[in-house]
Q: What sequence folds into this?
């Protein structure tokens, strides 16, 4: 199950963070997303690791904590997408697919002329779309 | 890099060293306690040799020298595995003590991230970590499976005071006192023994001791016995320059001076003793042991044969023992011996040998599934690899293996796992693999909170030191650690970690995290009683608009609790509750400009300025600055500051905003001001050079709470997310310099303040400052020079309506008041929109509204206009004798007419001068501003078409649409303005409007006859019969309004308004005879809703239409005069009809006119169907077929004969001159005879002629032309062509 998705701007400022858990663990998820940015930064600044996959946007598993797995995705504009999941065995294909759809949703959201770049995404449509993507992620991974 | 020089290497050289067990009698201890030390403590400093320089040989006879060496001394009781609970307690104490030491640094701010990265590691890392880690490692000491902690030798100590010292020595080795390690067979009980006799010099001479020593020597052998004399210093006042014990007594009490009874000789004796013991006994003993063991091992295990044998033998032992893994290996087993060999070699720094043996043994242990031993060996292998600086990978692999194996063991391996982990971490740190080190720290974390707190904190530092620094993880781990510290009540540690985390989170946009950190720091400080610091942190989270309401309430409640805990009211800098929007800051002050209302003050200064231009006396140079006159009297500083008058309030408008969803009460909101008295004006007038210095000397800062300033205070409550504009005022009472410093407020006990200086005011705040000056110093805008009181005029318009229907005329009264006793003079007034507001002519207010409007016989138009004292540009001068003083207000009538439906802003400026010439201000202006919403009412449009049948008469169609939303109107009167035109009804008065009023949305058209009076007086009387009963200026439209008197449109104020309307509509100043102005007077139909207000006052609406052109643009007009019906006997001849064309030239120029007739017909179709007029031909045809039948002679065939009428076939010819040219003088008429010939009966349209006219430009014509060209709106054609008017003539066959 995906517990949290986040969009983080190129200055590592949170643009959108949404948890999908019942419990009141927003702070924890904030922390997890926040500190997984270190790993993103590291991967971005260390091109030697991502040598053959120079234009690869998918960053893979960032940060395996005790209970969560954190995946990352980096757009060309240095906007990061973070996915926190509790699933222990997640297929890379699923995650990639998720991020691709998430990216599309994000692009649509920021293409809104009323969206101020670098500000938080407040679009309700975006939120709905993301929650749909999140739901379908669960379905495709189990089935 | 020398591995021994690294932190891990040093640590290993300290920790993995031979252990010497010390057995002593109580009297030995007594002698030592005099120095504040135990026996072991006394010896410890001298067991550490940085360069012992002992020659050694490896097992393969390679000579080498041992340099760094250390012995670890332990009492026999300590040589056992430490109790885990005790060890934990001890660790806790260490941590708590370290926490208490933090105290002093608590208050300062945490460093910035950049500083954090620059500062060295030793600065950042708390020093107690090292100590704690050592303690942690020691918790795993003296285990069975590792032999480096097993005592190599034994030091038996007896005091010379003891009875029977020899027996005591023997007693020492009594088995039941010895540690279990020696007894249960884990280690060889045959160890090196050394006998030491301690003599306390306080107890007398050493003779007795010498005796005992010789006795000992005979018993135990000469080499193994020693005498140690201590406490030679009698007075116990020895001071040691470099206290050797300092580093060994970590938690020692500094009360007693350590080693106070030991003099220099004693210390050197101690040194010699330990040196000899190490170099002569311990090391050779160990070397010897290594040699023996090595030979044994070589014999049994080395070589191909032995290995095969071993494997075989091991394989045969495939049923592992059920016993606990440790006890199967006694000291005599070959595995233990190999281990001992390895450890001894390790301790003698022969790492290669050690490694070889560890390798050998590790496979055995693995096969035996003796995991703890296996892990221990792996650990040692890793360390040996490390110290050999070989194969890093191998070292790490071994370490990880060991660590994992220990972890697998569960709780029994926990201590070892920790130790192993710490060593591993050190190893990684040495290689700058901080990130990996951090993850090992993370893995060490156990269930135990305190332990994991420390480990997490250390992990966080690893993240900080890693390259590149991983700040986010640094922060996160600090928070995790702090959380655990808090749970174990280590609040100071918790605060420390959170504060360190702040360096990462302070500037972050991740507000949830930041709030969490600040909030908890605040809470914890409050727990410790540091309320002010707590408040400071809580402040950071107060304005948390992003948090949920519950969280906001929690934050707020805790903040208030902490604040009350502080127990006093104090000023809180940076209280963000409420938030002040500095961009909303607006300062309104009155110098020579005064405002009647705050609304007026908010109007742009430039607007006022443009209005004021004609009012304010222009001074040479800077007209804007009245102080220029007194340049010599006023210092420059004053001229450039804002000026305000003592006793008059300065208003500051600031917006307060509640960022929370929780309502917050705010009280005592007031300004912070400084009023400083300055005597400069009097004492020092022109010393501009020393001005700055004088500033300091002369000014006496008067604090704001003294009586010199009156501050307004406000209490209000802000709901969730509410914004409120608050108007604060300050009234200086004395002259001087007033400075607005900031604003302060009280929020349930705590005083927040906000200084305006804290931000650089980019925005120009004060109004009316020249730009250059605003650039100079924006803060000057908050500085005021307070001057002596001067009179101030207050004024307002009584009951100015907010809404009005367009056209509504209302009387208003302007009330002016002067509160002071000084009189003012020279009042002037200017109104921005004279179209809307007209100034009345009497000082007394009009009691009778109607009287001013109604037409009265004795009204003289000229007289009323003359009364208006209008200066140029619409400036109204009040009469000289008007004086306003004291209580008596001046009332002045005004007329308001809502001219156009729009949202209308009215500006009025009243200018006055001071009677008192000595006052600093010469004049002031009062600015009034009103807002009027004008609703649409009647929309009137006029259409004028020339009357085809009559010269100089026009048909007027007036279309009236009621566009009001809810009001009905009664149209009562239409008037023309001026003497040139008269107007008359076409319909009877009763039939005009059946309902007598226009309801909402209703449109109606009225028709009138308009007649030029001028012409009628000359010609019309002779030519045209006067059909209209009265050709007057006014027409009453409604039968109901007949009773009411006519409204005089030529009288003030209607006339004034009309003039304004004319001005508004065009720039025609010269009279144009072809235009006419109408004034429509209407009254609102009194409905129920309106009945209450102004029921006695008649409401009057006027609608003005100016410059309504009579339809033709040509100055030439004409009529065809002739018979309409003619009987002729066509059988005899064709019919000749004479007609006359009267042509009038209404222009001022001579016109040359040519008329050309054309016989081709067909123009009848081209009749314009404008303005409701329809071609008459068709109507005749349709409406009276009977008549047509008569014409056609009642026969069906004759119907076809009508066709020529409509058909283009011409059946008449112009028989007169086909073209005639003539001149027509200005404003004159002439008659031209015309003739046609008709050949058959029928109805004919005689419009088939064209009239060309051309205005002759004679004397001065060029100028006129130019004038006209320069004015494109008014270009009048100088020539033109007109086609003929339709003129229908019916010719009938006479009988």
A:
């Amino acid at each position: 199950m995906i517990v949290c998705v986040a969009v983080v701007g190129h200055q590592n400022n949170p643009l959108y963070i949404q948890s999908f858990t019942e419990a009141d663990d927003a702070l924890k998820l904030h922390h997890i997303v926040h500190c997984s940015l270190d790993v993103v930064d590291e991967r971005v600044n260390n091109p030697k690791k991502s040598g053959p996959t120079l234009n690869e946007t998918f960053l893979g598993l960032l940060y395996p904590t005790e209970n969560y797995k954190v995946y990352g995705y980096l757009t060309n504009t240095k906007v990061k997408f973070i996915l926190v999941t509790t699933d222990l065995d997640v297929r890379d294909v699923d995650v990639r697919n998720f991020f691709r759809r998430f990216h599309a949703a994000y692009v649509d959201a920021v293409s809104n002329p009323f969206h101020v770049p670098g500000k938080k995404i407040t679009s309700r449509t975006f939120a709905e779309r993301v929650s749909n993507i999140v739901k379908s992620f669960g379905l495709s991974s189990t089935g | 890099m020398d591995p021994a020089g690294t932190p891990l290497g040093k640590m290993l050289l300290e920790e993995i060293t031979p252990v010497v067990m010390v057995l002593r009698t109580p009297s030995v201890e007594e002698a030592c306690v005099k120095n504040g030390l135990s026996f072991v403590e006394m010896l410890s400093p001298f067991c550490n040799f940085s360069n012992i320089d002992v020659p050694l040989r490896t097992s393969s006879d390679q000579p080498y020298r041992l340099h760094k060496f250390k012995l670890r001394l332990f009492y026999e009781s300590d040589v056992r595995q430490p109790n885990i609970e005790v060890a934990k307690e001890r660790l806790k104490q260490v941590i708590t003590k370290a926490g208490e030491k933090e105290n002093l640094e608590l208050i300062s701010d945490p460093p910035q991230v950049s500083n954090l990265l620059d500062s060295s590691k030793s600065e950042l890392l708390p020093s107690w970590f090292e100590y704690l880690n050592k303690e942690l490692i020691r918790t795993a000491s003296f285990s069975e499976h590792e032999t480096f902690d097993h005592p190599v030798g034994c030091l038996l100590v007896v005091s010379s005071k003891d009875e029977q010292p020899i027996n005591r020595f023997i007693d020492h080795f009594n088995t039941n006192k010895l540690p279990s390690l020696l007894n249960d067979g884990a280690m060889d009980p045959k160890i090196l023994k050394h006998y030491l006799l301690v003599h306390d010099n306080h107890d007398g001479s050493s003779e007795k001791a010498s005796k005992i020593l010789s006795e000992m020597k005979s018993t135990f052998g000469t080499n193994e016995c020693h005498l140690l004399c201590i406490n030679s210093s009698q007075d116990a006042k020895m001071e040691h320059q470099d206290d050797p014990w300092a580093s060994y007594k970590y938690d020692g009490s500094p009360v007693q001076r350590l080693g106070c009874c030991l003099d220099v000789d004693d210390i050197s004796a101690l040194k010699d003793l330990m040196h000899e013991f190490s170099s002569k006994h311990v090391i050779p003993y160990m070397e010897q042991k290594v040699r023996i063991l090595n030979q044994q091992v070589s014999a049994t295990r080395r070589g191909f044969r032995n290995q095969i044998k071993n494997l075989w033998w091991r394989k045969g032992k495939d049923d592992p023992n059920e016993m606990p893994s440790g006890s199967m290996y006694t000291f005599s087993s070959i595995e233990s011996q190999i281990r001992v060999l390895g450890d001894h070699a390790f301790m003698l720094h022969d790492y290669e040998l050690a490694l070889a043996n560890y390798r050998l043994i590790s496979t055995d242990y693995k096969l035996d599934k003796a995991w703890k031993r296996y892990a221990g060996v792996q650990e040692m292998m890793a360390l040996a690899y490390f110290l050999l600086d070989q194969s890093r990978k191998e070292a790490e692999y071994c370490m990880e293996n060991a660590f994992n194996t220990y972890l697998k063991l569960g709780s029994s391996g926990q201590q070892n796992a920790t130790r192993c982990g710490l060593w591993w971490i050190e190893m990684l740190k040495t290689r700058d693999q901080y990130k990996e080190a951090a993850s090992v720290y993370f893995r060490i974390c156990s269930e135990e909170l305190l332990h994991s707190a420390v480990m997490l904190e250390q992990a966080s530092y690893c993240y900080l030191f890693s390259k590149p620094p991983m700040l986010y993880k640094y922060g996160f781990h600090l928070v995790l650690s702090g959380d655990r510290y808090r749970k174990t009540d280590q609040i100071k540690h918790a605060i420390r970690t959170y504060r360190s985390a702040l360096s990462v989170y302070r500037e972050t946009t991740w507000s949830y995290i930041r709030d969490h950190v600040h909030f908890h720091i605040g809470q914890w400080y409050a727990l410790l009683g540091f309320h002010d610091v707590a408040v400071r942190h809580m402040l950071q989270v107060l304005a948390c608009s992003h948090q949920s309401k519950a969280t906001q309430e929690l934050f707020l409640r805790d903040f208030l609790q902490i604040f009350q805990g502080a127990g006093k009211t104090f000023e809180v800098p940076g209280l963000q509750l409420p938030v002040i929007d500095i961009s909303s800051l607006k300062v309104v002050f009155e110098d020579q400009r005064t405002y009647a209302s705050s609304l007026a003050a908010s109007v742009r200064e430039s607007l006022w300025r443009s209005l004021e231009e004609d009012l304010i006396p222009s001074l040479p140079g800077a007209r804007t600055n009245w102080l220029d006159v007194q340049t010599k009297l006023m210092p420059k500083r004053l001229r450039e500051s804002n000026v305000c008058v003592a006793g008059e309030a300065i208003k500051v408008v600031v917006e307060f905003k509640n960022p929370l969803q929780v309502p917050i009460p705010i009280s005592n909101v007031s300004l912070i001001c400084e009023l400083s008295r300055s005597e400069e004006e009097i004492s020092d007038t022109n010393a501009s050079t020393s001005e700055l210095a004088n500033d300091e000397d002369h000014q006496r800062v008067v604090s704001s709470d003294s009586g010199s300033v009156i501050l307004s205070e406000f209490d209000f409550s802000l709901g969730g997310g509410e914004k409120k504009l608050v108007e604060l005022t300050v009234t200086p009472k004395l002259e001087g310099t007033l400075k607005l410093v900031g604003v302060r407020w009280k929020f349930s006990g705590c005083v927040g303040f906000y200084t305006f200086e804290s931000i650089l005011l980019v925005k120009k705040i004060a109004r009316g400052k020249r730009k250059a000056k605003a650039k100079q110093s924006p803060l000057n805008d908050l500085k005021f020079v307070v001057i002596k009181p001067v009179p101030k005029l207050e004024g307002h318009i009584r009951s100015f309506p907010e809404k009005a229907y367009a056209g509504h005329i209302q009387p208003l009264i302007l009330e002016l008041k002067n509160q002071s006793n000084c009189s003012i003079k020279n009042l002037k007034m200017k109104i921005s929109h004279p179209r809307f507001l007209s100034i009345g002519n009497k000082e007394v207010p009009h009691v009778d509204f109607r009287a001013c409007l109604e037409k009265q016989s004795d009204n003289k138009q000229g007289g009323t206009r003359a009364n208006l004292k209008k200066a140029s540009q619409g400036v109204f001068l009040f009469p000289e004798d008007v004086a306003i003083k004291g209580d008596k207000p001046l009332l002045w009538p005004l007329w308001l007419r809502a001219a156009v439906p729009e949202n209308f802003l009215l500006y009025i400026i009243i200018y006055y001068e001071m009677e008192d010439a000595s006052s600093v201000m010469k004049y002031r202006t009062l600015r009034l501003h009103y807002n009027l919403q004008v609703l649409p009412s009647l929309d009137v449009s006029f259409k004028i078409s020339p009357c085809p049948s009559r010269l100089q008469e026009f048909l007027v169609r007036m279309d009236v649409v009621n566009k009001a939303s809810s009001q009905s109107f009664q149209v009562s009167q239409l008037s023309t303005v001026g003497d040139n035109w008269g107007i008359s009804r076409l319909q009877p008065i009763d039939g005009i409007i059946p309902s007598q009023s226009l309801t909402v949305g209703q449109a109606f058209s009225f028709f009138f006859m308009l007649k030029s009076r001028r012409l009628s007086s000359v010609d019309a009387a002779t030519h045209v019969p006067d059909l209209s009963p009265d050709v007057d200026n006014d027409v009453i439209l409604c039968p109901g309004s007949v009773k009411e008197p006519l409204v005089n449109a030529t009288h003030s104020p209607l006339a004034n308004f009309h003039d304004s309307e004319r001005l508004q509509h065009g720039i025609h100043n010269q009279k144009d005879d072809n235009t006419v102005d109408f004034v429509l007077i209407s009254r609102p139909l009194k409905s129920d809703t309106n009945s209450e207000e102004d029921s006695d006052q008649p409401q009057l609406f006027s609608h003005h239409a100016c410059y309504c052109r009579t339809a033709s643009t040509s100055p030439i007009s004409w009529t065809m005069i002739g018979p309409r019906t003619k009987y002729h006997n066509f059988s005899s001849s064709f019919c000749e009809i004479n007609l006359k064309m009267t042509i009038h030239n209404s222009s001022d120029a001579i016109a040359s006119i040519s008329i050309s007739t054309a016989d081709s017909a067909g123009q009848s179709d081209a009749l314009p169907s404008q303005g409701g007029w329809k071609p008459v031909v068709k109507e005749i045809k349709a409406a009276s077929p009977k008549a047509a039948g008569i014409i056609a002679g009642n026969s069906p065939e004759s119907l076809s004969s009508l066709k020529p009428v409509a058909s283009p076939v011409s059946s008449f010819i112009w028989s007169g001159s086909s073209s005639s040219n003539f001149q027509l003088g200005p404003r004159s008429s002439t008659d031209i005879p015309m003739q046609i010939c008709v050949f058959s009966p029928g109805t004919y349209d005689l419009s088939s002629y064209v009239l060309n006219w051309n205005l002759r430009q004679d004397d001065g014509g060029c100028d006129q032309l130019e004038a006209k060209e320069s004015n494109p709106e008014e270009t009048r054609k100088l020539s033109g062509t007109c086609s003929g008017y339709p003129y229908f003539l019916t010719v009938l066959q006479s009988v």
Remarks:
- The CA atoms of residues 73 and 99 of chain A lie 7 Å apart.
- The beta strands of chain A are 2-8, 14-19, 58-64, 69-74, 80-85.
- The interface with chain B takes residues 11-14, 26-27, 30-31, 34-39, 41-42, 45 of chain A (CB under 8 Å).
